[in-house]
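debug: dumping io for the single-chain case to check the tokenizer round-trip. Nothing else runs in this session.
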Amino acid sequence: MISFESACELALQYYKEALGISGIYLPFDIGDAWVFNGGCEDEHAVGIQKIAVSKESGEISAFNLPSPKNFALLDAGTTMELPE
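debug: decoded output
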């Protein structure tokens, strides 16, 4: 099991290395994973893939939208505050 802080670090590293993006915002707790947006909250960019970080393993996977299943997970999830 990984901590939310570790998941934030993994998400930041993924976005920086894979897409050259240096930020995350609006994380959600969806039960078995945390979902992250890449970028900055005040600079919405279209087409940036959301990712999910598994709470159990730290594995990163694509979190595709639009998807009825994934929208339902977000609706049932909890918005998290990013650590400093």
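debug: round-trip ok. Helices lie at 4-19, 68-76.
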